[in-house]
Write a structure and sequence with these properties.
8-stranded parallel sheet, pyridoxal phosphate binding, binds pyridoxal-5'-phosphate, alanine racemase activity, Ala_racemase_pyridoxalP-BS, elongated, EC 5.1.1.1, TIM Barrel
């Protein structure tokens, strides 16, 4: 993770926010946050005030911003714990200002072309005017403005240009309303790695911390290794059906080993037949369907004893599958692989 933050640093002089939503992309929010701050991240980001408070409880003192807020915003808790909140609609801002202490720090989240969160362009004036009146009435203060890039994974500055223009326009509008010069942030990992025009004052990095460049252009360092011990090994003859529906049938006499990981632990059930794990420096294919808590490996002539460690994915390269391999085998993106690792999998901090 330290190497990933360093790599990000080579691309931007802007402040780095470590986004640790979804339990730090499956790696443990406080663990990722501490490593990222130690490596130079100046801010943290999450999607609820409760998650941010947990980071404060874990001893993290840097500024934290929250957005999305599925359970609403506890304005008193946010203000007391020095947690900045982003609001993306006139209604949300109105409700917040009714309870906001004067010290509550607010970022206006504007839609920069995604039509997901963020205040639509047509209502920016209303949003900014409401924020200005709130500030006059000692109900919070506007300190930032944020957007989000819809197409940064294409690694094409032209695809980002409309969002960058929108972001500048929003910053100008906030300034023009007399709210000072807002801390402005737009880019996530891909924008940061591929397009300096998107950087503004701060970049928000999630995927990049755990080794994913969503644009697939920069090689980042895998931040985790998933291993499991073989729990059962058997010799089987040619023609043996394996697992549910006998979806795999052995072509020759072979050995099969069971790993105690299944779709409940985040092994995608939608795997191509190429999926494999690494044991003692060699790759072995999965045989048959992924069960809820087991997968079967065809190890050929090798009768690996129970207790032998298999690596599902890891950062090493060579025979060890990477999270990108699993994403390809499952027809998905690496994010869903790392965030899908279930709670039964024990996390050990190296
Ligand atoms: C998740 C998220 C990020 C981080 O995106 P990555 O591509 O994982 O770096 C940044 N900003 C917002 C608003 C997000 O929701």
């Amino acid at each position: 993770m330290t190497a990933n933050v360093a790599k990000i640093r080579t691309r931007t002089g802007s402040t780095i926010m470590a986004v640790v939503k979804a339990d730090g992309y499956g790696h443990g929010a406080a663990t990722v946050a501490k490593a990222a701050v130690a490596a130079g991240a100046g801010w943290l980001g999450t999607t609820s005030v409760a998650e941010a408070s947990a980071l404060r409880d874990a001893g993290l003192a840097v500024p934290i911003l929250t957005w999305l807020h599925p359970s609403g915003i506890d304005a008193e808790e946010a203000a007391a714990a020095r947690i900045d909140v982003a609001v993306g609609s006139v209604d949300e801002l109105g409700a917040l200002l009714a309870r906001a202490p004067s010290i509550l720090r607010i970022h206006l989240h504007v839609d920069t072309g995604m039509s997901r969160g963020g205040c639509p362009r047509a209502r920016w004036d209303e949003l900014i005017d409401l924020a200005r009146r709130g500030q006059q009435a000692q109900r919070g203060r506007v300190v930032g403005v944020m957007g989000h890039l819809p197409s940064a994974d294409r690694a094409d500055p032209e695809a980002n240009a409309p969002a960058v223009a929108r972001m500048r326009e929003a910053r100008r509008a906030v300034r023009a309303a007399g709210l000072g010069s807002p801390f402005t942030h737009l880019a996530a990992t891909s924008g940061t790695l591929n397009d300096t025009a998107t950087h503004f004052d701060m970049v928000r990095i999630g995927a990049g911390l755990v080794g994913i460049d969503p644009s697939g252009i920069m090689a980042m360092h895998g931040a985790s290794r998933l291993t499991a011990p073989i729990v059962h090994t058997a010799a089987v003859p040619a023609g043996a059906p394996v697992g549910y529906d006998g979806a795999y049938v052995t072509e020759r006499a072979t050995h099969l080993s069971v790993l105690p990981l299944g779709y409940a632990d985040g092994i995608p059930r939608e795997l191509s037949p190429q999926a494999c794990v690494e044991i003692h420096g060699r790759r072995y294919q999965l045989a048959g369907r992924v069960s809820m808590d087991q997968i079967v490996i065809d190890t050929g002539a090798e009768p690996f004893p129970a207790g032998t460690s298999a690596t599902v994915f890891g950062p090493d390269g060579g025979a060890t599958p990477a999270i990108w391999d699993w994403a390809r085998w499952a027809g998905t993106i690496p994010h869903t692989i790392v965030t899908g690792i279930g709670p039964r999998v024990k996390r050990i901090i190296a």
